[in-house]
Amino acid sequence: xxxxxxxxxxxxxxxISTASSPASPPSQSAASTPKHYIVKNGDNxxxxxxxxxxxxxxxxxxxxxxxxxxxKLKPGDKLIIQ
Length: 82
Hints:
Strands 1-2 form a two-stranded antiparallel ribbon. It has helices spanning 24-32, 45-51, 56-62, 67-71, and strands at residues 36-38, 78-80. The chain is mainly alpha-helical. The termini are far apart. The relative contact order is 0.18. It contains four helices and two strands.
């Protein structure tokens, strides 16, 4: 590569599922299994939400936390992130 060189990037293509592998069962199993995050030293609800590409409000709602409970998070606590 050189400075000023034009690069051609191919467009994203959709993944086409084959008839032998149905698309619905994997998505159902992924949706039914919640993902978790283990709180680390220095974490707070905002940093956890940012790391997991979600809103703080959604994180608190998923874990039945209000602001008071969120302040009491400590390393080792397990939170649902999906």
